[in-house]
Amino acid sequence: MTNSSWALRSACVAALALPTLVLADGNGPIFITGSLAERAASEVPYSVTVIDRKVLRESGPMVNLSEAMAGVPGFVVSNRSNYAQDLQINSRGFGARASFGVRGVRLYEDGIPATGPDGQGQVAQFDLAGADRIEVLRGPFSVLYGNSSGGVISLERAPVRHNRAEGEIDAGSFGLRQLRAALARKLGAGLDLSVSASAMGIDGFRPHSAANRRLASLRLGWQGGHDRVTLLVSHYAQPAQDPLGLTRALFNADPLQTASQASQFDTRKASDQTQIGSTWKHRFDEGALREARVTAYFGSRSVSQFQAIPAAAEAAATSPGGVVAFDRSFDGLQASLRWAWETVDLQAGLAADDQRDARKGYLNYTTGGANPNYGVQGALRRNETDFAHSRDAFAQGEWAISPTLTASLGVRSGHVTLASKDYFLANGDDSGSSRFGYTNPVAGLRWQPARGLQLYASAARGIETPTLNDVAYLPNGQAGINTGLRPQISDQAEAGVKWRGGTGSLDFTVFQAKVANEIVVESSTGGRTVFENAPHTMRKGFEIGAGWQLAPAWHGRLALGVLGARYRQSYLSCAVSGCAVAAGAHPATTGALAPVTVNAGNQIAGTQRGSLFAELARTSAAWGEGAIELHSAGRTAPNDTNSDFAGGWATASLRWARTVALADAGQRLEVLARIDNVFNRTYAGSVIVNDANSRFFETGVPRNFMLALRLIGDL
């Protein structure tokens, strides 16, 4: 088998049912999960970054993904400092529309989807401390992951390499406290086991922002001669207060305050999730068929959320109330086969994912009149069962045209079905269903003109279907689901260069994505948010990722993303709660409640013009590693009308880490100390996109300190 054929075979993993990303590991060889061969990170025709275990452990208490994702160009992961709403994540502007949770970006943990078949996901259950790495893909090749894949984040745990026990205690500003324990052990007969558990609590720097989190996970692996089986079990529980966003006036007056509605309505959210998954991989030694892989998973998730909706708004017959409660069950099955010939690789498979939500809504008060008793569950206002199903088939092939030129082609075709059965008919029957079919092609070309230098280009068509939340309501209080809401379609292209030298590395990418039928907020009132399609948008920009060794003791990193995300055609929207747009007709309201025009050229809400991360570190055998970090972001549009902006900001962080060998052989102590936002800058770290009450601004964390002590022992 030729070297180019081996390289082709390893490159083809992106078409797995749960496709696997390529790991970037400096100048050395790296492994592609599910591949039989090693492959240099520069030898793939797309943008990919890895966050390794060292970066994860030095970026903070390993609670929020935003701690470590700052070094990924093109991805913006904003910490809302609000555990009731999860992080705000976008990849080249995809996903920026999410006012809670994650949209437009596919999420995986140990190969198991953390994104539902309708495109909604969350990362709160990610066990960052147990991760071996996080793989991040952006650009055209992400469409091979299916619906709502403007980018991909995949967390991977490592198999047990040696017996080890670990304990950790963290303490920090604003009442941060965390305990963690982990055990990894080889059991013999090809079996290995790793388990971990953690408990975190925080009081928060704003009133009414406390949270607690409990995580537990188990990984049981078995490896035989030609087979590898992995069983994964995880549980997560998190009650959290919701401090809400601030209006411009409140933010300017005191950015550390909390809106009065947070305490008035006792806004909060409690969620928990249990998940079980298993993967089987079989390797064939002879013939063209080389590998088979099957992944199956199932789980349940429960959420209860109390919102700040006044009784007057809930009095409307169509209001679903101010309390959201649902119990979700989900499962999936995915399988793939891989073939390899002399110069051609081929991979194909099938995927099926299902979700069922028993969803209810309640009034958030129990007594009426002038002084409602808010913050308690009242009368039933919504009772339905929602369904989401996706069915996909996919294939990808690669051809070694020459030792230095490789072509890639792939396609993913399938459909997403959303349906709702309404049992609460006092406000009309909101039953209905929508089905969205798609075929997403992708093509790429890679050329190696010289050793260590790669040029590449790729193009694809992608899709982001509406979520169950997006289709839940029709405009103007009409009954039924929003069957007129269409998926947004993107035509993406990128070109780049990757260089690996003896003392550094450089990745440079330019990209463009034209989007038709962008999904946006049309109106929001009384707990009912209605979505519509904006005609045309454009995303374009460039990214730089670099690392360098300045001297034996000095090294640095740089991640720069520049993005222009704008509307190309004007459309009507609503600026205030109570505004309404009659679909396909002239507005029915006037004056203060009249719709407004989102002008062509406006910045897409939730996006920034640029983001920057830079790091300079010095390593000493005697003193460990010290570093200074710079984090910066451009101004953010909180709404599509661009009536206001969250200002750009820059903060500096200091960190020090050292590993100390203890007297007992095989034991060591890891110490991490961080000071973030050293100069105590005041800024809006994130925004609540298109909030109907203009409570857009979520204050960034003030200067804060953190100390972690990790005791590790070999067994």
List the helices and strands and how they pair.
Layout lengths: L2 H9 L18 E2 L6 E2 L7 E6 H6 L7 H4 L5 E4 L9 E4 L14 E4 L2 E2 L19 E6 L12 E6 L7 E9 L3 E13 L2 E12 L8 E13 L3 E15 L6 H6 L6 H5 L3 E16 L5 E18 L4 H4 L8 E18 L3 E19 L17 E23 L2 E18 L9 E19 L2 E12 L23 E13 L3 E22 L2 E24 L2 E14 L3 E3 L22 E3 L11 E11 L3 E10 L15 E13 L5 E10 L7 E4 L9 E3 L4 E11 L1
Parallel strand pairs: 6-9
Antiparallel strand pairs: 1-2, 3-8, 4-5, 6-7, 8-9, 10-11, 10-35, 11-12, 12-13, 13-14, 14-15, 15-16, 16-17, 17-18, 18-19, 19-20, 20-21, 21-22, 22-23, 23-24, 24-25, 25-26, 26-29, 27-28, 29-30, 30-31, 31-32, 32-35, 33-34
Structure description:
This protein is mainly β. The protein has 6 helices and 35 strands. The strands form 6 sheets. It has a 22-stranded antiparallel β-barrel. It is globular and about 70 Å long. The chain starts with a helix and ends with a strand.
Average pLDDT score:
88
Strand content: over 45%
Number of helices: 6
- What structural class do helix, strand and pairing data support? mainly beta
As a percent range, the share of helical residues equals: under 10%
Number of strands: 35
Q: What gross morphology would you assign?
A: globular
Rounded to an integer in angstroms, the radius of gyration calculated over CA atoms is 25 Å
Task: State the assembly state of the protein chains.
Answer: single chain
Q: Poorly predicted ranges (pLDDT <50, ≥5 residues)? A: 1-38, 582-592
Describe the biggest sheet? 22 strands, antiparallel, barrel
